[in-house]
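thread: overnight batch results

M.L. [08:02]
morning all. the overnight job finished for the chain we discussed friday. pasting input first so we're all looking at the same thing
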Amino acid sequence: MIYFVYILASKKNGTLYVGFTGSISKRVNEHKNNKYGGFSKKYDVKSLVYYQEFLVVEDALKRERQLKKWNRSWKIELIEKNNPDWKDLSLDLRNMTSQHEILSVFFNKSNTND
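M.L. [08:03]
and the structure it wrote out:
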């Protein structure tokens, strides 16, 4: 399985939200549709501006905790290094999800043939 740490923004240089998930397309969709109340709904944080993939859940959780402790300027620098235009990366998720599903099937089959 692939795990994700992500940053959502309300707008360029706006409010930021750091999260963790095992299904980034599903989780971003939940944020965009205000499925749950809380911080992201209150501050209208819906644009996926950064994400990072992990194969080990503990690594992803460690990275999420690390980013949550970072000061705002470090987070903005990380976003702008990877996404200088603050493009909503969720628009590209459909292709990425398909590729991950294919890889997941391949790796799961590979692991059962040991």
